[in-house]
Design brief:
With 154 residues, the protein is mainly alpha-helical. It contains six helices and four strands; from the N terminus they run H-H-E-E-H-E-H-E-H-H.
């Protein structure tokens, strides 16, 4: 996802927030559970739970996100209900051994991109369904807390 790749180089936290926001849009109206696993956070500060029903999990050093995903799947009671997005061959093989489905990262990125406009200067945002006041308040609180957490670490 080129728009997120550019962000990763400059502001990893903002890139993560942008991905979570895209996942929330993808999830809305689908009735599916979405968990995103990131490599370690580098700080023990608690992260506010993002809105939109997205669960964010961080691996703890020295564990990688891939190892965390494998561990989560191994502990899952019904792994066949999982779909894991990855293009890493070792993850794909491991996931399939547990009977779960996989989607290549590039294919899933295309799905994310379809429902989310690529905003630029003077480009209007058109949305399928407007967010409720409660959803707006939830997002505002998420970003307010995130800013406070970052400010307190500096």
């Amino acid at each position: 996802m080129p728009d997120l790749a550019r962000l990763v180089a400059n502001d990893l936290e903002r890139a993560r927030d942008a991905l979570v926001a895209k996942l929330a849009v993808y999830r809305s109206g689908r009735g599916v559970r979405v968990t995103v696993v990131f490599d370690g956070r580098g700080t023990g500060a608690p992260q506010p739970r993002p809105p939109g029903g997205i669960e964010v999990v961080f691996s703890r050093a020295p564990q990688t996100a891939d190892a965390k995903i494998k561990n989560m799947l191994a502990l899952e009671k019904s792994p066949r209900s999982w779909t894991v997005v990855s293009s890493d061959n070792s993850i794909v093989r491991y996931v399939r051994d547990y009977g779960a489905k996989t989607i290549p990262s590039a294919e899933f990125a295309e799905k994310l991109g379809m429902g989310i406009p690529n905003l630029g200067p003077n480009r209007p945002f058109s949305q399928d369904a407007p967010m409720s006041r409660a959803e707006v308040a939830e997002w505002e609180e998420f970003f307010r807390r995130g800013r406070q957490d970052r400010d307190s670490r500096q």
